[in-house]
């Protein structure tokens, strides 16, 4: 497999090299030799040479490779590489091919290096109080909060268009498919190969509104996965449109976070140390679209803190801190354009710590929300580690954390000692919400029952709409799919008291139950994708690694191992691979996926 791929790559470079012929020869030879981390660094030398020939020379070479290899449809090759190629060329011109940043680039682009060890850094934090406030439930009736995520609304979704296609999302009238017979016509509202229709999004927002929730959190990704086509004008208008729809259809406040798709090119959030580019237009757009819910001071934070903000939910003593974690996201290629140690890109960590200190000082509890969880395979280890230090310091103040990004219904746990991950050391719980987009499961949202005194989660209930239900295409029904307390508390030895919250300790005990009771673990896998295309993960390495990932609140501890070839497609927003078929989840069960993606590596160049 690998040999024929390299042979075709070599041919393509010989044919298309033109004036860059000797450079192309060098690149081919280096790719041929790139079998481990050291040789990946050597490969970066000729690639850097190509980058110095200019963005267009760099991108056009890679576009040719992509097309000849048939890695994607021609239009997808052109769009993806034209948008992202220049960022990687900029990186290569800015860093040493042999430094730590290039090791990270080798990990992200080729999977040939493992992520380097964390750069030890003590994040500056004020001392903890000697007498921390104790938060105790008064046993009052919980209130409800909705959590929805990963909307991925495709405004070009076309009923009747083919649900089968060769592009990352289908159900669209693509020019190069015109006149071809339709194999399966898209229904009015949705299909698993497609992103969310506007009708499905409206139906979900209405369902959220009828649940009587006090407020909602939305953990990002408004834009559909047509990542080869996105531009600033289109993204700005789609962000604005969804902000208006949320305001119209949900009567209570929504507290959003910024997702990696909510910009153009996708994932692209340059740091403030990169003067060549900026995402300020995203922050300005969202500040104006969110101001009604956030008020003046948090709205100003969105603009000046790179999309992060902090706000007290109305009528509560709860501070919601929304972080832009895309500055820690390993396929935000702008993060690899410097060899300088930058522990806190754009000051997001310092802002979060400062807001937690405000909460502690004023006797408030806090929720952390963001798109990508710091536990994710995609979270850079350094920033995840420094964030974890903040969590340890403010563990009494943080009641829970909420994320999205993976499209599946899961969770992660932080520990005071990652070498000894036991119930007594479990300090913080990260709830990761399922997606609205049907790509990776039935469309879903969560309703949390929240204790009004501690702001801890008493129950987490998923609502889904079932795509295979015949009524779905005309009048989608949203029904409670499961209650976490009902499913999991009977599995905890001695049970779980009705008045105790679903805390980090509770969820640690759930992972212990998974170890002993495989049927319960398989149930968790079914719930993850809401009964659709269930993951295969048997006892043994797959299950052990999956449980390790649940106990990996700090990404360096999630047992993920980089593998050659698995990496690049996710850089363009193919969430399916990163969430479902990640090697830490199901290695072996999806060997076919590994091979089929070997060529996919080159696309990301
Ligand atoms: C930008 O994207 C929109 C779709 O969101 C498209 O209609 C428009 O033609 C694109 N503009 C350019 C200059 O490509
Ligand atoms: C639950 O109720 C029991 C009995 O009233 C009490 O001892 C315990 O402290 C309560 N637990 C919580 C978390 O409120
Ligand atoms: C969805 O509906 C189909 C057909 O009625 C049924 O077989 C399936 O179990 C349902 N899935 C879920 C998750 O409820």
Automatic annotation (TrEMBL):
Disulfide bonds join 37-113, 66-77, 165-170, 171-194. GO terms for biological process: sphingomyelin catabolic process. InterPro entries: ASMase/PPN1_MPP, Calcineurin-like_PHP, Metallo-depent_PP-like, SaposinB_dom, Sphingomy_PDE. The keyword Chloroplast does not apply. CDD domains: MPP_ASMase (cd00842). One of its GO terms (molecular function) is hydrolase activity, acting on glycosyl bonds. Residues 33-117 form the Saposin B-type domain. It holds the Pfam family Metallophos. Residues 1-21 form the signal peptide. Converts sphingomyelin to ceramide. Belongs to the acid sphingomyelinase family. This is Sphingomyelin phosphodiesterase. It comes from Macrolepiota fuliginosa MF-IS2.
